[in-house]
Each structure stands twice: as C-alpha cells, then as structure tokens.
Amino acid sequence: MSLSERIEKEYIEAYKAGDSGKKDALRLLKGAMKNRLVELKRIKVTLTDDETLDVIKKQAKQCRDALEQFVQAGRDELAAKEKRELEILDTYLPRQLSPEETEALIEETIKAVGATSSRDMGKVVGAIMASHKSRVDGKALSEAVKKRLEKL
What we know:
- Helices cover about 75% and strands about 0% of the residues.
- By secondary structure, the chain is mainly alpha-helical.
- The protein has two domains: about 5-90, Uncharacterised protein YqeY/AIM41, N-terminal domain (Hypothetical Protein Yqey, Chain: A, domain1, Orthogonal Bundle), CATH 1.10.1510; about 100-150, Arc Repressor Mutant, subunit A (Orthogonal Bundle), CATH 1.10.10.410.
- The protein is globular, with a radius of gyration of 18 Å.
- The termini are far apart.
- The model has no long low-confidence stretch (mean pLDDT about 95).
C-alpha cells in the first residue's frame, strides 16, 4: 500500500470513527497533496511515496512554526490543536535520527568530505541531506554542523 493510499484509508477510518482531530489533519494533508499534484500537472496520477513524504514534511514544518508562534502568543488552545496535528503527521514520517546518531553522522561526514573549517559547512550538510533527507531536520542539522565545524 502506498503512502497516499494509507492516508486515504486512515482518513476514511477517522471520518467513520468521528475523530475530528485526525480527520481535519488528514483533510489538510490531502488538500496539500492535491495541490502538489496540480503544481506537477499530474491530475489523474497519484504522488509517489517520496513526493508524498515531501508534502508531509512541508506540512509538519508549517505546524511546528505555527505551534511555536501560538505558544509565544499564549494561545494555548490553538497550540494544542497544532500539536495534535503535528503528532498525526509525524506518524507518516520516518523515524528521525537521535541527537547521538546525528552527532556520529556529522563526525563521519566531516572525515569523509575532508572538512577543515566552517567554510566546508555546505559540503557536510549537503552530503548528510543527500543520504538522510527524510530522517533529519535541515535546520537542526545546519546548527549542529556549524557548532562542530567552529571547533576545528
């Protein structure tokens, strides 16, 4: 079963079960997936799993940003809604690397690309993102690589 089919199936289950939080989150995701199909000019075809993952990651990033803003503004009810939506979206994403795994990967990649200063940050981040794109957050990775390269 493709990721798109799984999302559709779980949307129908949430609708039948009356789970409005999950139903709403999946409805937004399905809308974003449909928009992506329109952008790609493929109306009668479904997204590949990689394309679907990209849409999910984009939606999750938007949720994280909104959650952060709602928390800062003291809007707890809206923050709770965004947090619930983010939890639902995270179930469709691959397991993220732990901080320890990320640090080990950074060390390994620094040696592999021969990074010697913070000028090589792009090489390190690019190499990691190419091999672990869906398992690591780009913003957090950039910060960690920057800190590590400053120590060289």
